[in-house]
Amino acid sequence: MLKNHLSAVTWLCVFLVAFVGHPVWLQKPPKRKTPAQLKAAICCEEMKELRAQVANLSSLLADLSKKQESDWVSVVMQVMELESNGKRMESRLTDAESKYSEMNNQIDIMQLQAAQTITQTSADAIYDCSSLYQKNYRISGVYKLPPDEFLGSPELEVFCDMETAGGGWTIIQRRKSGLVSFYQNWKQYKQGFGSIRGDFWLGNEHIHRLTRQPTRLRVDMEDWEGNMRFAEYSHFALSNEFNSYRLFLGNYSGNVGKDALLYHNNTVFSTKDKDNDNCLDNCAQLRKGGYWYNCCTDSNLNGVYYRLGEHRKHLDGITWYGWHGATYSLKRVEMKIRPEAFKP
Ligand SMILES: *[C@@H]1O[C@H](CO)[C@@H](O)[C@H](O)[C@H]1NC(C)=O
Ligand SMILES: *[C@@H]1O[C@H](CO)[C@@H](O)[C@H](O)[C@H]1NC(C)=O
Ligand SMILES: *[C@@H]1O[C@H](CO)[C@@H](O)[C@H](O)[C@H]1NC(C)=O
Ligand SMILES: [Ca+2]
């Protein structure tokens, strides 16, 4: 019991001694800061704030730049799109430019038409593609021939071939797309049908009128293998309707191998509704066209347009016996005329 008490007192003493011996340890006096230390502290506060601001700003900047980047990407995309648009525009421009000369040409024609109505003399008359060629229209394409009271010709849209063998050709027939049926009646063949840039027949009445002066006929042909041939005839003419548009042909020349039109020389025109041929059969109905049928054909340029794969099977196709025989329908045909006197 005493021993215990003693030890407690001892502990108290030890504790007291320690307490008195180390007053500083208990009561720390407030440290006095030097001015330099103070300054540093303020600075650090400011620094901290600045850092926070900087951090804030840089996070803001990061946000902004992220936004900008996406904006930039969209801007770049837009620029790229504009550029590709620009390229497209450029190609369109060159297209337009090439069209421009043609347009110019057409405008000149219109002006010519206007002039034509004022000074109408037969020497100046424009009544086919060769007269246009002589007036320096040298681009192949569609032209409008003005009406001519002196010659009694109405206004007429024609397609001029200004390139083949010296140019000046007025196209009277074309087969190239198969989009127009040539199994037409007398009236249709008389007036003409089809589209001037595609497949068409200019019309027997027009052809008759255009061949009142000595005229050459040229037939350009293409087969499905891509070979091109032509046949030319001097003194091509069609009589009037009263004489059933009888065909006259002079001598053959060309590279198609063998003529296949002279068999039709001096025969008259037949259509499905007018059998004028030299046969018991109705050739127009058998060969499904309008043509100067004899009995019946050596060529059938107004026959049915057959496509590759079908073109070797039929007798009513677009045939030229002197080249590919009676059962080969050609891929492309153009019949065109120009005056004998034409000099390119
Ligand atoms: C940091 O931005 C927050 C808002 O995002 C704002 O409340 C704070 O005041 C800004 N701090 C500084 C130091 O600009
Ligand atoms: C056809 O050629 C022959 C000679 O080969 C010639 O005598 C004749 O006049 C020519 N016919 C025509 C219409 O050109
Ligand atoms: C075409 O027929 C006419 C009239 O019969 C004839 O005068 C002419 O010589 C013929 N053409 C050819 C090339 O035989
Ligand atoms: Ca008949």
TrEMBL record:
Pfam family, one: Fibrinogen_C
UniProt keyword list: Coiled coil, Disulfide bond, Glycoprotein, Secreted, Signal
Cellular component, GO annotation: extracellular region
Superkingdom as given in the UniProt entry: Eukaryota
Coiled-coil region(s): 47-113
Example of a GO biological process term: blood coagulation
Gene3D superfamilies xrefs: Gamma Fibrinogen, chain A, domain 1
Signal peptide: 1-26
Ranges of residues in domain Fibrinogen C-terminal: 120-341
NCBIfam families: GGGWT_bact
Official protein name in the record: Angiopoietin-related protein 7
Organism, as annotated: Dipodomys ordii (Ord's kangaroo rat)
